[in-house]
Specification:
Chain lengths: 403, 403
C-alpha cells in the first residue's frame, strides 16, 4: 500500500461523500500542505461528540501535514436575525464573538493540533465589503438553483416564508472559500449544498474549485436519531469522565462500531475490523470493546489518569454490583420545586433521617450516579432515573416522578 | 367644487391606480408641500413623449405646490451587469452618470419646474451602505412574494434564470423612498410592484407608507403598441418641431383623445370633453383639434414661435398641397453608403442635373420633409419615406430602397 493510498483511506474513513475523489488525490500528490476549511457557528459553543466527527477529520488532515482553518462565521452572527422576528437571536457583539472563540479554543484543541490550526473569522473580509459587493455576489447564483436546496425546496412547497437574505447566506459561506483559497472544505452531509457553493464561486473567481468532503451526522445514544442537545441523546465533551464512560457503556453494539469508525482516532479501521471479528467469534466480550472506546473518549477530553479512574469507578459501581440487573427501581414522588439530597435518600430508604444523610455526606460517602455529592442544596427534579449510593455497599435505583 | 377636489381630479387625471386615494386626500389636506418621487434610469437618456406622461404628472404636482424628486438610480447602474453575461451593459462611471444627468436636465426641464425639482442620485445613500446593510435589507421581503412579481413569475415558470441580485433591485428602489422620506411615488403601471415595495419598507422603517400613483404606458403612433424606440412608433422630444407636428397630425382620432388626456397640460379634462363633443357633433373638424395638440407638443419642446412656424409649414406643404393624397410614391434605389441630396433630386426627376440641384440649394429652394436643406453633404439612407420639394410647387414623394 502506497503512502498516497493510505492517506486517501484515512481521509475517506467514515466520509459520506468526496467531491471529487480524483481531485483530492491529485492535490495530495502535489505534496504541498493543503488548506482545509470547516465552518463553525459563532454562537456560544457547547460541543458534544457529534461535533467531534468533523474535528476528528480535521485532525486526520493535520496528522498528514495539512493546514486546518477553523472558520468562525461571525459576519452573519453579528447581523443576528435581520427580520426582527426572532427576538431571542440577538446580534452578537465583537466581544461575544471573541469570548465564544475562546470557549471554542478550550474545547477543540482537545482534538485539533494547535500548531496546524488557523482560527479565522469571516468578518475579516465581509466587514470590508460594500452593498455593491453583495449585489455582485448575489448575481453569481440563480433563484431556481437556490430553491433546489432541500430545506428551501420544502419550505417553498409548504408555503413557509423564506426571507431573501437566507439566499445570501450560502453565498457568504461559499465566498469564504474564495477569500481563504481553500483546497478542501469539510462539513456535515446537511451542508453539502453550501459546500458546493464554494466550488462554484471559486471557479467563478478563477480558482481551482475546492474538494468537498461531507461527514455523516453521528447517531446519538439512542442509536437512531442524530446526536443533539434538544433530543438529550448526547455526550457533551465537557461532561465528567465518569458520565462519558457511563453513557458510552450503555450504547448498543451496532452503534458502538459506528462510533468507533467516526469517533476513534486511536484505532485504525483494520483494528476495528479485527475487534469486530473477535466479538462475532466469541473471542472477545463486546463489553471489553466498549470499555476500550469509553476509555479513549474519556481520555481525550480528561486525560488518561481521569479516564482510568472513571473506568475503575464504573467497574466498582455499575459492573461489579450489577446494579442495572439486580436492583429494583423505586418510584419517588417529587414536588415541582424538586427534592434535596437528604429527603431523597430517606425516601429511598438508604437512611433513617436527614441528619444521618448529612453525616454521611460530610464523610464523602454519598454518591449520585457514581459521583460524590457534597452539596446539601443540590436538588433533583422529576423525570430522571438515578443510582443512589451510601457507603460502599448500599445502593438504590430510583425513578423520580412528579408528585 | 372645493380646491381639494379639483387637486384630486387633476392628480387623478389619466392615472391607472392610486394606492390609496384616501391617503393622498389626507396628505393633500395637511397643506404641507409633499415629496413626490419618480425614478429614472441612469443610462443615456433620450426621452420620447411616452416618458413625458410621468413628467407631466410630476409637473401637475409641482403646480399644486409640491416638491418633486427626480431620482436617478445610479447605484445599480454603476454596478452594471454583475453576472458578466451582458457585455454591452458596462458599469457606468461617475462621469457617465453626471453627463447623463446633464442630458436629462436639458430635456426634463422643458416640462418640470426647476424651482420645485430636486435631482438626486441613490448612490448618495447606497454608496455608504455595507454588505451587512444589504443583508438586512434583503431580510425584509420573502422569496415567495418576490416571485409574485409578474415578470419574475413568468420567467420562473418558463425556467429562465433569475439571478439572485435581481431580487435585491426592487428592494433598493423601495429603500430609496425610505431614504428620501417620500409621500408619493409615481411610475408606470409596469412599476407597480416596485412602488409597493417602497410602501412596505417605509412601514418597516416606521414611516407613513408612500402613496403609489401609476400612470398607463402611452400608446405610440400606431395607436396599439406602447410607444418605444425599438418599435419606431415614437416622437422623440428632441425631434424638430415640424416632425413633431407631422407625426402628430397622422395619428388616429381615438389616439388623439388619449394623447390629449395624458400629454396635454394646457387643456383641462373639461376642455377636452367639450372639444370631443364638438367634433362628434360636427361643429369642429377633428383636424383642428389635432392641430391644437400638435401645436402644444411642438411648443413645449421648441417654443411657441417654432411651433407656429411648424404648423404653417405643415399647412403649406402637406395640407394645402394634399401631398399625401395626390402624389405617387417613387421607389429610389440607394446604395449602402447612402445617397446625397443632388443625385436624389435628380433620381426623383425634380432636377436635370447635380449642378441644377446645387444652384437651387444656394437659393434655399430645396426642402426635405418640409425643412430647407443647405448641406450638400447631407446623405439619406435606404429605409425611409420622404417628401422632396424644389421651389414652391414641385414635389416628389420617394421611398428609399436598398439598391
Amino acid at each position: 500500500m502506497t503512502d498516497l493510498q493510505s492517506a486517501l483511506d484515512l481521509l475517506g474513513r467514515g466520509a459520506d461523500e468526496i467531491i471529487k475523489r480524483e481531485e483530492l488525490e491529485a492535490r495530495l500528490k502535489s505534496g504541498r500542505a493543503l488548506r482545509i476549511k470547516a465552518g463553525f457557528d459563532p454562537t456560544a459553543p457547547d460541543l458534544h461528540l457529534g461535533h467531534t466527527v468533523l474535528l476528528n477529520k480535521m485532525r486526520q488532515f493535520q496528522d498528514l501535514g495539512h493546514q486546518v482553518i477553523f472558520l468562525i462565521g461571525d459576519f452573519t452572527g453579528m447581523i443576528g436575525d435581520p427580520t426582527g422576528k426572532n427576538i431571542t437571536r440577538k446580534p452578537l457583539t465583537r466581544e461575544d464573538v471573541q469570548a465564544n472563540a475562546q470557549t471554542y479554543a478550550e474545547q477543540v484543541f482537545k482534538v485539533l493540533d494547535k500548531e496546524r490550526t488557523e482560527v479565522r473569522f469571516n468578518s475579516e473580509w465581509f466587514a470590508q465589503m460594500t452593498a455593491a459587493d453583495m449585489v455582485k455576489l448575489a448575481a453569481q447564483h440563480t433563484v431556481a438553483r437556490m430553491l433546489e436546496r432541500d430545506d428551501f425546496a420544502k419550505r417553498y412547497a409548504a408555503q413557509q416564508p423564506i426571507a431573501i437574505h437566507e439566499f445570501l447566506y450560502p453565498l457568504v459561506q461559499g465566498y469564504d472559500s474564495v477569500a481563504l483559497r481553500c483546497d478542501v472544505e469539510l462539513g456535515g452531509t446537511d451542508q453539502k449544498f453550501n459546500l458546493l457553493m464554494g466550488r462554484a464561486l471559486q471557479e467563478h473567481a478563477g480558482q481551482a474549485p475546492q474538494i468537498v468532503l461531507t461527514m455523516p451526522l453521528l447517531e446519538g445514544l439512542d442509536g437512531v436519531n442524530k446526536m443533539s442537545k434538544s433530543l438529550g441523546n448526547y455526550i457533551g465533551i465537557d461532561e465528567p469522565a465518569l458520565d462519558i464512560v457511563n453513557k458510552t457503556m450503555k450504547i448498543g453494539d451496532d452503534l458502538m462500531w459506528r462510533w468507533y469508525e467516526l469517533l476513534s482516532l486511536d484505532h485504525s479501521l483494520a483494528d476495528i475490523e479485527r475487534m469486530r471479528r473477535e466479538v462475532a467469534g466469541g473471542q472477545r466480550h463486546p463489553r471489553d470493546a466498549k470499555i476500550a472506546l469509553a476509555f479513549e473518549l474519556a481520555a481525550r477530553f480528561h486525560g488518561k489518569a481521569a479516564a482510568e479512574e472513571a473506568i475503575t469507578q464504573w467497574n466498582a459501581v455499575v459492573r461489579e454490583q450489577r446494579i442495572d440487573v439486580d436492583l429494583p427501581l423505586l418510584d419517588i414522588p417529587v414536588p415541582e420545586s424538586g427534592l434535596r439530597i437528604a429527603p431523597l435518600f430517606v425516601a429511598a430508604k438508604l437512611a433513617a433521617s436527614n441528619s444521618e444523610v448529612s453525616r454521611k455526606m460530610a464523610e464523602r460517602a454519598l454518591r449520585v450516579d457514581g459521583t460524590v455529592v457534597e452539596d446539601r442544596e443540590k436538588t433533583l427534579h422529576a423525570g430522571g432515573e438515578h443510582l443512589l449510593q451510601i457507603g460502599k455497599r448500599a445502593f438504590a435505583r430510583v425513578r423520580l416522578v412528579a408528585a
